[in-house]
Design goal:
This protein is mainly alpha-helical and 104 residues long. The chain has 2 domains: 57 residues; 34 residues, no CATH class. A two-stranded antiparallel ribbon has the order 1-2. The longest helix is centred in the middle third of the chain and has 55 residues.
Length: 104
């Protein structure tokens, strides 16, 4: 007689395969979430860098135009001198003040 209590199992059962597939999908979902998040962060940092570069270029152009118009620049604190009526320096702190300087 054969002893049927000791069967030889070769391979994986259906439950083991389903559990390993579920774990694999869970890990892949986590990796793809990290990838998408990293890609979005990179795109955002790239946009911020471009905005910084554009702002720097605009400020340099504005400074150049103000200096060409006869206003001296010292260390960035006081961009313009020349309120000829009151002989007082004009300190530019915002773009609204730039209009005041340019419209004199």
């Amino acid at each position: 007689m054969k002893n049927n209590n000791k069967l030889q199992h070769k391979g994986f059962s259906l439950v083991e395969i389903m559990i390993s597939l579920a774990l694999g999908l869970f890990i892949m979902a986590g990796i793809s979430t990290v990838y998408v998040s990293t890609k979005e962060t990179y795109a955002l940092r790239d946009q911020i860098s471009e905005l910084d570069e554009n702002a720097r270029t605009a400020m340099n152009a504005l400074r150049t135009h103000l200096e060409a118009a006869g206003y001296a620049s010292k260390a960035g604190a006081q961009l313009a001198y020349g309120n000829q009526q009151q002989n007082a320096p004009i300190v530019i702190k915002s773009f609204a003040t730039v209009d005041k300087v340019l419209n004199q």
